Amino acid sequence: MQEQQLKIIFYCTVRKELILENHLQMRKKNSLFLVRSAAGCIARYVLAVSFTVLVFSCSRIQKNKSHKDTPDASIEKGRVLATTHCQSCHLLPDPALLDAKTWETGVLPGMGPRLGIFYYGADKYPSYKNDKNLPANFYPDKPVLSSVDWQHIIDYYTALAPDSMPKQQRQSITEGLPGFKVQSADYTYPSPGICFTKIDTGSSPHQLFLFDMVKKYTFRFDNRLSLTDSAKTDATITDIDFRDNTMVACNINMINPNNGKFGKAQYLQTDARGKLHLDAKALFDSLARPVQITSCDLNNDKKTDYLVCEFGHLTGSLSWMENTGKDKFIHHVLRAEPGVLKAYLEDVNHDGLMDIWALFTQGNEAIVLFTNKGNGVFEQKEILRFPAIYGSTYFEFADFNKDGLQDIIYTCGDNADFSAVLKPYHGVYIYLNEGNNQFKQKYFFPINGCFKAMARDYDGDGDLDIAAISFFADYASPQEEGFVYLRNEGNFKFEPFTILESKTGRWLTMDVGDLDGDGKIDIVMSNFSIRPSSVKTGFDWKKGPPFIFLKNITK
Fold first, then answer.
1. How would you list the strands of the sheet with 522-527, edge to edge?
2. CB 447 within 8 A of CB 481
3. Using only C-alpha atoms, what is the Rg of the chain?
């Protein structure tokens, strides 16, 4: 089984210090003991420190204070049962990844229906059991394990989890962004809900596209941040594919979680007067909450196909629409799993066929390589896997160590589901390419609720810096992390900076590129202010700007 890359948190009650291992490797000498369950197929990690082994305490394996009376036998049975049942759909999570209360009241009630458990004791577990948009056999007809065994699993996760999650440990973030000038557009309006941001450098001059989910408007700004056009639609645009002077909009239709197939692809066109409008006729439809559409030619027949990330909800898929001519398409499913968020096309093995990299972010979270074998056949390989609790949000490729191999920069920080607590493993990761599609973690910078990170040589010094945004930041912290700029100081040391204006919005989307045409890479981040938050920030995001433009003024 592929070596897993996990980060596990251990808390020592005697020394009162947090030990955070970003990447425990199975081959580290004297640092790990491998404990296998009866099933024998999942590794558990234990950290050896000085004279003893620490797993939430400085003696033997210990239960947390709130569950100290949980029987050891029940915990051990739960460990075995979790190995059998929980990892049948995704990477087996360690109890240490969440606090006990979140396991008990959030994650486990959310998982119960997947095992046919809709009621437990006096509690009714939330489910979509009556959703007609789900396949009839989505939930088991009857529980796959007894209520006694389900309690064992509950005991395992709630007793071995920490009573509270430790805070992130990181260096201080400096306020003030060297090399950039903060600008806002003259065009502002209350309660912006920008869910799509794109710098179009294919046009001349360059331009900026935004879509506001609340107002149902597509906005187009020129390279001087002047609003040149806006188009009212009944769509919700999450992506636009630019190819050969053609724009195809990805219409998710209903952005809130649902299991319907109401999404579609539509042409976004400019009429004779130069005004934007969305073609009422769909290029193709019946898509499960699509978030990205990319033009391509996957079967080398010289016709334009489309790769589609159908994020869905409980169901979804990575799919491609085969162009058969005369505006007809055949829908092919590459992987029938929800949560596919981002995909790239690349001829990885140089055989003349386009392969696919895709990030799946719900349940079975992973970066997957789909190797094109021709004739519509693709071979799948999971390159990196992450615990389902991570909340993966983005990835892209960049060569950080200048060895000619593309490394992976990855973010996790989605905190909107069953475990809405701050997590110390949220942030920006760099995985170095060791060749043969093998990647190893090299760097981690903690950012609560991190949603996107884009690596570019922003300051023109020859190495890659990182611009990152967070949608679920720790707004109670004095250190602003809604936007973080990581300046590369060499040898994988990055100096973090932020801007005071980061507090004025809640940043869901971001794009980078040379908007003003001066040859330097600028940054645009957009405000999705309508999503409620349980944390008070002292600033009303609904009064914030629709977007902030960070003009690159590096000499």
1. 180-184, 547-552, 522-527, 507-513
2. yes
3. 24
Q: Which residues contact 225 (CB under 8 A, 6 or more apart)?
A: 183, 185, 186, 208, 549
Residue 53's Cα: distance from chain center in Å? 33
CB 81 within 8 A of CB 139: no
- What pTM value is reported for the model? 0.88
pLDDT > 70: percent of the chain: 88
In sequence order, what DSSP letters do the residues of 397-422 get, joined into one string? EE-SS-SSS-EEEEEE---SSS--S-
Q: Is there a contact between 264 and 251 (Cβ–Cβ < 8 Å)?
A: yes
Q: Which DSSP symbol is given to 252?
A: -
Q: What is the pLDDT of residues 242-260, one digit of tens each?
A: 998 899 999 999 999 999 9
Torsion of CA 454, 457, 459, 460, to 10 degrees: -160
| Cα distance between residue 25 and residue 246, in whole Å | 47
422 neighbors 413 (Cβ within 8 angstroms): no
Residue corresponding to tokens 């949000």? 393
Strands 355-360 and 365-374: antiparallel
What is the DSSP pairing of strand 174-175 with strand 493-498?
parallel
> Phi and psi (nearest 5°) for 241?
-95, 120
DSSP 542: G
In the chain, the largest separation of any two C-alpha atoms, in whole Å, equals 78
Strand extents, DSSP E, 115-245: 119-120, 123-124, 174-175, 180-184, 194-200, 207-212, 217-221, 227-232, 237-243
Q: Which residues lie closer than 8 Å to 532 by C-beta, 6 or more apart? A: none
Residue 481 tokens, joined: 């992390």
User: In the prediction, which pLDDT does 539 show?
Assistant: 82
> Rounded to an integer, what distance in angstroms lies between the CA atom of residue 335 and that of residue 316?
9
Helix (H, G, I), strand (E, B) or coil at 223: coil
What percent of the chain has a predicted confidence (pLDDT) above 90?
81
